[in-house]
Design a protein that fits this description.
The protein has 505 residues and is an alpha/beta fold. Helix content is 51%, strand content 7%.
Length: 505
């Protein structure tokens, strides 16, 4: 029986080797897999192992168990299962050896035999100097284990019976032994390669069938370190095609503290603050504004390692074109969306959002000077009132003497008398894109794309009312104007940019 200290030693090694029963048993020489599993389950449930003794059995019970053991094939497990006692096979074995010393057949564990012993047993089996059972009994294993050794060394297709080898045919015997040794080495290499491939899948998340030679040195070192307790390091590195010095360098590098730990944390914070809208370029600009100098490549790599992926766009299709209901003014912009001062060139359009609660339409005015959204209006219907309300709010921001160009597509909202009258009233010069030519108003379409990618797409809007959704869009546009940085503005938001030029309070 095993002491409490023996059991705890086995549990400690089992946990140290990532719950590998084979490695633990090979190092300690005890117990079997089933017993080790029972010890671990007890330890995991109670946090410790019991120190108590087994239930006491009287002499009559012990004798009955021993007699049944010998009368029914000398199988410890079967006897315990049939009687329901004792608690373990080991305890029953101790009763048998005490009451009937020397009578019990003892078989050694298959894993405790050296390769030479296995080869000698296979030679004895195939030469048929004795029956398979006699050979197995002489070695101390079962017939199943003996035939398993034969399959490992000679292959399943090899016959189990060969002609007896004369004593003078030592050369043939040596050749057989040499062949068996080569087969054994081949088996070891295949098992090692299998372990490496399994490590690449489990540890690194690689696809099955990955080529170990294509792994990075860091990945090879991780695999080698995981296989090291059970296999020789030189054999592992030889199969991986890696030198010992390179492996040692990678191991030491992994032990060093992460120099980008603080940067990783800050990148995650900036990404979360943007609600997943910032890619590596904007995150780098935000870091630069904080005085952190780092390349785009480093930021992109760290984002990949952190699994941070910015939101991307989808198709949208909404058209307000209702035909040529009035004369269209000339296209004054001609896709030149540059403005030297605020309130010089305005763009506007209407976009549609579909949520479970219904449809929502947004009409903004975008200033080409810095991309600021000057005003916006939302409604559940894309009517003239929506566009007119937005234009009235934008005109209220104009200073004396400011008369911007108002560029639109050929939607019906911008061709009705109410819109035309307002443009004349506020001194806004009308400009229109060609029919069905979205690039003529691409700057405004770009704002819609960014809004939908960073706010709308990829989110579940079930349970949101129309009013709640409008509040979310309103909050986004405020954030867009005040905090969302742009590369074209030197890493500043539109409002920050205007403040830097003393154009806003």
């Amino acid at each position: 029986m095993y002491s409490y200290e023996d059991k705890m030693r086995a549990i400690e090694l089992y946990l140290r080797y990532d719950r590998s029963a084979a490695v633990t048993i090979n190092e300690l020489g005890y117990p079997n897999r089933h017993t080790l599993r029972l010890w671990y389950m007890e330890f995991a449930e109670n946090g410790d192992l019991s120190r108590g003794r087994h239930r006491r059995y009287d002499d009559l019970q012990k004798r009955a168990a021993v007699d049944r053991f010998f009368d029914h094939g000398q199988c410890l497990a079967r006897t315990v299962r049939q009687l329901g006692y004792p608690k373990s096979k080991e305890l029953l074995a101790s009763w048998v050896d005490k009451l009937e010393p020397g009578r019990r057949r003892r078989r050694a564990k298959a894993g405790s035999f050296a390769d030479d012993q296995k080869r000698e047993a296979v030679i004895a089996l195939t030469s048929r100097k004795a029956s398979a059972q006699e050979v197995a009994d002489a070695v101390g294993v079962t017939r199943a284990v003996l035939y398993k050794w034969k399959n490992q060394l000679l292959g399943e297709e090899a016959p189990c019976k060969m002609e007896a080898v004369p004593k003078d045919m030592t050369d043939d015997v040596d050749a057989l032994r040499s062949q068996a040794a080569e087969l054994q080495e081949q088996i070891k290499r295949l098992e090692l390669r299998k372990a490496i491939l399994e490590g690449a899948v489990e540890l690194l998340g690689k696809d099955q069938g990955v080529d170990p030679g294509m792994l990075t040195n860091r990945e090879k070192a991780l695999i080698a370190n995981s296989l090291r307790p059970a296999r020789k390091l030189n054999e592992i590195l030889s199969e991986l095609g890696m030198s010992r010095s390179s492996c040692q360098y990678q191991v030491e590098a992994m032990r060093r503290p992460d120099k980008h730990a603080g940067l990783r944390r800050r990148i995650s914070e900036i990404f979360a603050a943007s609600d997943g809208r910032y890619g590596y370029r904007r995150i780098r600009l935000d870091l630069r504004s904080e005085g952190v100098r780092v390349s785009e490549k480093v930021v992109a790599r760290l984002m990949r390692e952190l699994d941070l992926v910015a939101k991307r766009g989808k198709k949208r299709k909404y058209s307000s074109y209702k035909g040529e209901i009035s004369d269209a003014p000339e296209n004054l912009v001609k896709r030149n969306f540059h403005a030297d001062a605020p309130n010089t060139l305005w763009l506007t359009d209407i976009t549609e959002f579909r949520i479970p609660a219904g449809k929502v339409y947004l009409s903004p005015v975008v200033d080409c000077f810095d991309g600021m959204v000057v005003s916006w209006a939302m409604s559940t219907s894309p009517n003239a009132e929506l566009a007119n309300a937005m234009l009235d709010a934008a005109a209220a921001t104009l200073l004396e003497g400011e008369h911007p160009v108002g560029h639109t597509d050929r939607g019906c909202h911008y061709r009705w008398p109410g819109w035309i009258e307002r443009c004349e009233k506020y001194g806004i010069t009308r400009s229109m894109s060609k029919k069905g030519c979205s690039p003529d108003n691409s700057a405004c379409e770009g704002f819609f794309g960014r809004l939908k990618v960073e706010l709308f797409y990829g989110r579940c809007w079930s349970g949101w009312s129309v009013d709640d959704f409008m509040d979310a869009v309103d909050s986004y546009i405020h954030w867009y104007n005040e905090r969302r940085i742009k590369e074209s503005l030197g890493g500043m938001s539109p409002l920050q940019y205007r403040r830097s030029l003393n154009l806003a309070a």
